[in-house]
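Can't attach files on this board, so I'm pasting raw text. These are the components:
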Amino acid sequence: MQILVLEDIPETRDWLIRILAKAFGADLTIEAAATRADGLARVRKSVFDLALIDLGLPDGDGLDVLRALKITQPETLTIVTTILADDAYIVAALSAGAEGYLLKDQPEDVLIHQLRQQRDGVPALSPRIARRIMEHFRFTASPDDDASLLTDREAEVLGLIGRGFRNADVANDLGLTENTVAGYIKAVYRKLNISSRAEASWHANRLGLLWKR
Amino acid sequence: MIGVFSYYRSALLPHWVMPPILLVICLLTLAHVTQVMPNISIGLHAMIVGLLVAILVAIGEQYRRSRGDPVARAGVRWIGQSFLIGVGGCVAIISTPPLLGVESIFDQSLAFGFLIVLFVGIAIGVARHRLFDLEGWSFSLLFYLSAAFVFLGLDALFLYVLTLDRVPALALALFAVAFLYLPVRDWLWRRLMTPAETENDALMFRLAAVAFATGPKERQSEWGTLWRDWFQPMRVEVLEAPIPVTPKVAAGGGELLVPGLGDLPGLRLIWKRKGRRLFSPRDAETVERLIRLLTGLSETRDSYQRGVLEERSRISRDMHDNIGIQLLGALHSGEPARKDGMIREALAELRVIVSGDLPGQTGEMGQAGDVLGELRHELGEVLAAAGVVLDWRSTPEADRCSLPSAQALALRAVMREAVSNVLAHAGATRVDVRTTTRDGGIHLSFEDDGKGPAIGAVAAPNRGNGLKNMRSRMESLGGKFLESHRESPQSPAGMRLEFSLPSAASGGAA
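---
Top answer:
Structure tokens for the assembled complex are below.
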């Protein structure tokens, strides 16, 4: 398993690498980078299965590395690691295509648990982020574009998560399997990505950027 | 009249010229009366028309000379127009036809009615020395005058060229005036007398620029720019005391006094439109209206700034209460696990403060649902990582309950502590949490199926310390803490903790 760890604090970087080893065993090749520039260079050179990306780096925004990965290696599982980032920042990362996020101040065993879950395709979503996402769709979705609208079920799942339900609770409450719930959350992420792209092109249009090509 | 316009408002001719002119006029009149002249056309009418032309030239010259003095110009325009309509109309009807050798179609007595215009005009001009509103009137008079001439001209045209009868000709002329002249006049009136629409749009931005300028200096400069752009005065001076409370027209329309607003100074605007116009009471009304708008905008800005300040003080209060105290506790705690726990809690609080979107964090009454949901998720993750099942049930009443910031903070702290106790000592497989309300306040019960308090308290002294912390946190907010055995068939097994807080509305939580 090829893993990229982008993190500028050395202690935290080592700690993350230790956690990865505990979560996924010894058969890992981990490349660590401390800056945006180094991160971009490694994304150009190697292929990764998993990338842990810190957003606030000394020389710029980790989101740039995330975007580069999504363009050149869309198969890579990208997880944003953050500590104090504003919720809106996490939503922005999800919109940019991140598959999940981790809060670095959590106890080690919680992080290991969440890492394994995200590797297995169970997306992470905390109540506050779920509420943010609902807000996002309320303000940005356009009625003439089905792809940017949440289905009733997706909205229902988001609503329950926003009230503190975990995936298993949601599955229980709605009479679904946990896998189906995970599928709905992933669909929401995808739409977030689509709607943010639509929004970006709308802004570009408005600013006349697309006409200049 | 020729005397009046030769010397009002500035002397066009040297003073010695006037007596001979008057003498000539007297002689001519005498000649007419004594019938020395060959006929009435030359004797009387030619003299009258000649005088009229001379007076018009004098008026034109006066008007030209009054350039740069709007008050004088308005006066000349007013009196001149009165003369033009009154005497001009009269002469046109009585004297012009005989001179052209045509029979007059109007009765002489009708023509003298025009003279009334002259007298009324002069009367108004004199009664209102300051003349500032006359500007608008002058324009309308000019328009009505031209309407009258168009009317008469068309009438004459139809009569003489088309040889129509008098009645149809009059009707046609009326028709033409109504459909051609009036719309044109209306359009001209609007073009000349009211500011363009676009100025109104731009005005909104100007006002906002004043109200939302970054500093007092910028505000004052925008304030000056506002009036400079709006009235284009020749000069703007800052008013010394006494500053008028309401806008005032002064110096006969030459100046407009703008009252101050807050830290913005009162201003004296001198010569509207670079001296081409006079300030009118309508301008004063406009200023009053603009100042009212500006006051409203300024209040909006003030309340916005108050909001920013409140937010800032909320953040610093939260920083101190929630984070500073946690970190200080962590610093002084000798126990690594507890140190880590406190630092983690501080970071979690920091994240909440940065996001600032939890109603419970605003210090006002927030809904418990959001805070409890967040807590439920967090504790669920922690327990799941250790393989412990969390069964959490909430009543709708509890979710809707008000939860002030201090209560939210305390609940988060005690619940985290309870969970870490379970993981550290109890060996439990499941945790049940129930949130309800009791006497309007929030009530939480927390049960595990672990080893229970009797064994735990003896085996782990730290745990007892944790329970003491919980009790003091609840009691400091006027709440209650109960510690007992789990109510279950296999009793005594597991531990039951109960936390209740007083109703936020009753003011019990100070």
